[in-house]
Amino acid sequence: MTYLSPFTPLFFADIASDGIPCRCMQVFAPGDVILIELFSDDDVEAWLVKESDESKVSLTFASEDLDDGGALFYAQVSGLADDVYWLHVEGLGDSEPFEVTSNQSVLDATALFQYGNADNRRRKDARFIVDGKRLFFSFRAIGGFKDSGVSFAVDNEQFETPDCDIVELYGKESTQKKFTLGGGDGAPIWQGELLNRLLCCHYVYIDGYRYARKGSAVPEITTLMEGLDAFVFTQNLQRINYNYPKYSDIENG
Known about the structure:
It is built from 3 helices and 19 strands. The longest helix is centred in the last third of the chain and has 10 residues, at about 190-200. Strands 2, 4, 5, 8, 9 and 10 form a 6-stranded mixed β-sheet that branches. It has a 6-stranded antiparallel beta barrel with strand order 11-14-15-19-17-16. A hairpin with a 2-residue loop joins strand 12 (about 130) and strand 13 (about 135). By secondary structure, the chain is mostly beta strands. The protein has one domain. It is globular and about 80 Å long.
């Protein structure tokens, strides 16, 4: 049996759509690193297909044996030419198409998520450290932060003296930001599901800076139009300590 890690940012439809398909297509920049993880009891056969000429783009998979007798097969894809692609996996079929573009006006409307866990103990459906190397998944989504979605909070304790002086025993401020996923065309439901899943990771970077969900908040769904399988998702996040290393610092050791 072969299955794709649900943290891989490519989607294989498992149920039939009951509405008008979403017009939003996932995009990546040529320099993005797309991590593909497959778990299988046997060798895997998988490749990318380029839409313009339906040619195959071969993938080089590394592998790691697992304790259950199966194996992890993973490939890090980058440097693709501008085009539309989909992933074909023997036994699974074709993924939803995605576009690789160097058009900066398109990329400016997206946010790049890079996410991973501190170890492999938390999940059995993904591997985040392989051969001593930390791996990050990358997911680029249409959306971003707006100033109108910023809110402020404080965790503090005070007491008031007999002469009405207020003494701050301790105080720690925080800033929450609302991330909006989905533009004018909305986004497919699987992107909201992936957003909720990736926020369970220990390391979550958005455009290079680390964020975390506040408490148990989950993405809120707004339906653009009845009968259209396109949605806008909003999620409250908190920026981790501004002195915390950027993703590029973690990646480069």
